[in-house]
Amino acid sequence: MKTFKIGGIHPAENKFSAHQKIQTAPLPKQAVVMLGQNLGAPAVAVVEKGAEVKVGTLIAKAGGFVSANVHSPVSGKVAKIDEVVDASGYKRPAIIIDVEGDEWESRIDRSEDLVKDISASKEDILAKIADAGLVGLGGATFPTHIKLSPPPGKKAEVLIINAVECEPYLTSDHQLMLEKSGEILVGIRILMKAIGVTRAIVGIENNKPDAIALMQKLAQNELGIEICPLKVQYPQGGEKQLIDATIGRQVPSGALPIEVGAVVQNVGTAFAVYEAVQKNKPLIERIITITGKSIEKPSNLLARIGTPLSELIDFCGGLPEDTGKVIGGGPMMGKALLNLEVPMTKGSSGLLIMPSLEAEREKMRNCIRCAKCVNVCCMGVEPYLLMSLVENEMWTEAEAAHIMDCVECGSCSFTCPAARPLLDYVRLGKNKVGAIIRSRK
After folding, report:
1. C-alpha angle 293/296/300, rounded to 5°?
2. Domain membership of residue 226 as a residue range
3. Domain holding 240: CATH number?
């Protein structure tokens, strides 16, 4: 069974929301739409207080080359443009909309009909994706139209669809494949046309046999689309690990996937591409997993962007009494939230309610040089060394030790018998070293 070659772990999967059909979450009373929902520059508001908007109305334009448009996820009136606390704990600009009804822009095709024929040209596809404000829905939120436009001199050879969903607890991509497989395959063909390739590989871990079987059955009639079952191995959803697992190519240090002829897109992004190109629908909602060992109804919800996370938790039975921590994302790469009133964004793939007993960190002990963190590192770096260099503010040495290659998967912290917060220190070091590298340019 195919997998990546370096490192990796297999944490408990805890997929409690697996096979829970996608439910539509209630509309919020007030939508808080962040302007910075993508990697890169935040969008710039093009509406003012008091403006009337519909679902799909453009409310903020991309604020730079690496940026993405933002559309209203609800209909109503703009209450204010203000700074609100986001998932990072910092105040960021947002457009706050009082919800009135649910009126959609007339250009959006809301029918359930599957539109298979792709009439749009390559240029039209890229324009529609950019206009729709699409970003990578696997978590990185890189603007999709930029990723589909390789730099001069670089040529894509293969499209790789990331349907791995290796993060414990999360199941939104799995359920999306079970319910929207036809739309996903059309989305894949649109992406293939956009980057000019004749081969696409869909990587799915073999803990999703029903999704593999369904996608394989449908892909039989799709020329050039291959469904690739993969061994269950975290963090296989990382771009470089998935490329290694599916086509056996190693992306060089500091390089992008296009260096080895690959373009990687999340399966949720493929579905969003279908909706943008075939249905004229901007990215105003997405599927999010609400889960945890104590939550009453672990669920996969289709929720509007801008919905306060507290309302999604309430819809799933409310916050359990034994809650110790609420994590945006999964347990390995997600981050704890300071409060539950933060709004859902384009990058919100999951919400994990963690019980108190599991949320408590063990007391850190001295490193015993067991090298477990080195053995599991999927990027071949030495986490124990990087933590020591960061503790001592040895930034030049940290850069030389390839700290920027870390993909922040958390495998090192997960496996450390001394409970050392390796990832926390590496993240801190990456921020500092990254700033130093940028200052040289």
Report:
1. 85
2. 122-279
3. 3.40.50.11540
Q: How many domains does the chain have?
A: 2
Omega before 235 cis (within 30°)?
A: yes
What is the number of H-type helices and E-type strands within the chain? 13, 17
Question: Which residue among 279, 307, 337 closes a domain?
Answer: 279
Q: Which two tokens stand for residue 338?
A: 């300071």
268 in a structural domain: yes
Residues 355-404 have pLDDT tens digits of 999 999 999 999 999 999 999 999 999 999 999 999 999 999 999 999 99
Contact of 54 with 23, CB cutoff 8 Å: no
Give domain status of residue 428, yes or no. yes
Q: Is residue 185 part of a domain?
A: yes
Q: Which of 255, 236, 59 is nearest to 138 (CA)?
A: 236
Structure tokens at 416: 């450390």
pTM over 0.85: yes
Nearest CA to 54 among 79, 29, 76?
76
Six-digit token pair at 167? 């993060």
127 and 274, same domain (yes or no): yes
For the stretch 1-57, pLDDT in tens is 999 999 999 999 999 999 999 999 999 999 999 999 999 999 999 999 999 999 999
User: CA-to-CA distance for 125 and 118, rounded, in angstroms?
Assistant: 9
Take residue 246 and report the two structure tokens written for it: 């599916």
Residue 416 lies in a domain: yes
